[in-house]
Amino acid sequence: MARGEPNGAPDRDLWERELAVLAAEAGGPVLTPGEEGYEEEVAVFNLAVTHHPAVVVGATSPEDVALAVRGAGRLGLNIAVLNTGHGPVLPATEDTLMITTSRMSDITIDPDAQTARVQAGARFGQLVTDAAAHGLAPLPGSSPGVGVVGYTLAGGSSITMGRKYGWASDHVTRIEAVTADGELRHASATSESELFSALLGGKSNFGVVTAMEFGLFPVTHLYAGALFFSGSDAGAVLEAYRRFTSTAPDDMTSGIAFLNFPPLPDLPEFMRGRLALAVQLSYVGQEAEGERLIAPLRQAATPLLDTVSTIPYAEFGSIGMDPTDPIAAVEHFGLLDEMTPETVRVIIDTVGADSGSRINLVNIRQLEGAYSRPPATPHAVGGRDAAFSVLTIAVVPPGQEVSSYANSGRELFDILRPWLSPRKHPGFLAPADATVQRTREAYDPAVYERLQAAKALYDPENRFRVNHNIPPRQA
After folding, report:
1. Residue 340: count of CB within 10 angstroms of its CB
2. Which cofactors are required for activity (predicted)?
């Protein structure tokens, strides 16, 4: 077998020729299993997932992406896309060519139009910094290390201003993408509109997004941070949070996290080996009004740590304080239609201080507000009637099998079934949701039919299938 040749390759000579073309013409590395740099190129943040593609192309330009897509077509390989390594992913196997875009990270800010154009590998930390220099702000996720494009294609639920401005996808005006035929297309509401609306919510099913343009907002500061409480106060704090969200204005974006970690030395003392709660808050407005709004939360119990203050927008990462080191973890997502006192009780029974749960994080975030508004340009991001999103994470200890933790978190969703939405959301799909049926549940039926039609148009052979796959509609 030729170097790096996948099992079942159509022709050894063809494989060697295609590798030679990729290596000669691509601006970045072209690597096969066993070569130096291969493991680092395919690495992701969640160590529970390991990629083993037949070849990986480190793209430096849209031309590299198109070259790799055409090569995959000639070799009969599926195509996987890896932007920054964050987000739920499926393992790429030896029948796959992987394209990484982390080297494509240019960002251009237009302060007059209040827009940003970012390449596929751009991260929110740099985007927020660049926009802040012009008094502007995007709608970032919770971590500066998260990639802008993948997050936005999935909808994009911002930790800072989501309830005020809605889904990040609602503000996209232009997308550049290479489709399965190797063509670079420029999609918007008025040009290639079927592709534009399919990519926003349909994600990597229709091509490799190489760049994206979207609106920014004239916000420079937030009244934001987190209130930390002892797990022994979980019932009182969660009930106070439930009441708080029932009257919170759209200018207030918030969530509550149950933190249940082992006694790690880099954690604050009050979090080592014991349950803690963090109420994460971000208010777009004056500090005095923000203080008034969150006063009932501060009074629910005695905070162990209070970091809420007026901060520069560029410090948005301090709200969620997400980990920066890769870990192996199992995720599950769901949407709640409502939260009642009974909902609070069953959550405390399932993941509270005396529950014995091995779920390490439960993050409940309020949606509603601008999230519920229809987009100006129709696209595939739905789930707009949900009240809350719920995320569970179970960290897999070193040396233990991921499979033994596969169902960790499901017990919470089982007990939440009376309040759980039957719908999923494209931005809240875990690897466990990567079946045709579960993926279908993320879209309204009419939207899903349109996505299948777009798939048949732009990727009829379903090359882009290493994802939450939407198969093409059959003739």
Report:
1. 12
2. FAD
The CA-atom distances, in angstroms, between 106 and each of 82, 89, 109, 148, 214 are: 17, 24, 10, 12, 14
Measured between alpha carbons, how far is 446 from 440 in angstroms, rounded to an integer? Answer: 11
The two three-digit tokens of residue 412, written as one number:
């919470």
Cβ–Cβ under 8 Å, residues 303 and 239: no
Inter-residue contact 420 to 332 (CB < 8 Å): no
Question: In sequence order, what DSSP letters do the residues of 398-456 get, joined into one string?
Answer: TTS-GGGGTTTTHHHHHHTGGGB-S---TTS--GGG-SHHHHHTTS-HHHHHHHHHHHH
- Give the bridge partners for 114, in sequence order: none
Of the candidate CATH numbers 3.20.70.20, 2.40.50.100, 3.40.50.720, 3.40.462.20, the domain formed by 221-431 belongs to: 3.40.462.20
Rg (CA), the chain: 22
Residue in 149, 6, 160 with CA at minimum distance from that of residue 82: 149
Query: How do strand 96-100 and strand 55-58 relate by DSSP bridges?
Result: parallel
Closest by CA position to 427, among listed 81, 166, 164: 166
Distance CA 189, CA 197 (A): 8
Domains 12-100 and 221-431 share a fold: no
Q: Looking at residue 201, what DSSP letter applies?
A: H
Q: Torsion over CA of 136, 137, 138 and 141, rounded to 10 degrees? A: 170
Cα angle value 83/87/91 (rounded, 5°) = 80
Rounded Cα distance, 261 and 357, in Å: 11
Nearest CA-CA partner of 414 in 472, 359, 354: 359
Q: What is the pLDDT of residue 2?
A: 47
- CA pair distance 115, 218, nearest whole angstrom: 11
**pTM given for the model:** 0.94
> Which pLDDT value is given to residue 3?
53
Cβ–Cβ < 8 Å for 276, 257: no
Residues of the chain with pLDDT under 50: 1-2, 8
Assign 3-state DSSP to the chain and report helix, strand, coil percentages, each to 5.
35, 25, 45
For residue 1, the model assigns a pLDDT of: 32
pLDDT at 266: 82
Find the helix or strand (DSSP H, E) in which 239 lies. helix 234-247
Instruction: Give the CATH architecture of domain 107-218+437-458.
Output: 2-Layer Sandwich (3.30)
Sorted by where each begins, the domain ranges of the chain are 12-100, 107-218+437-458, 221-431
Pairing of strands 96-100, 78-82: parallel
Nearby residues of 438 by Cβ (< 8 Å), 6 or more positions away: 424, 429, 432, 468
CATH topology for the 12-100 domain: 3.30.43
Burial label, 288 (beta-carbon count in 10 A; 0-12, 13-18, 19+): exposed
Whether the CB-CB separation of 101 and 65 falls below 8 Å is answered with yes
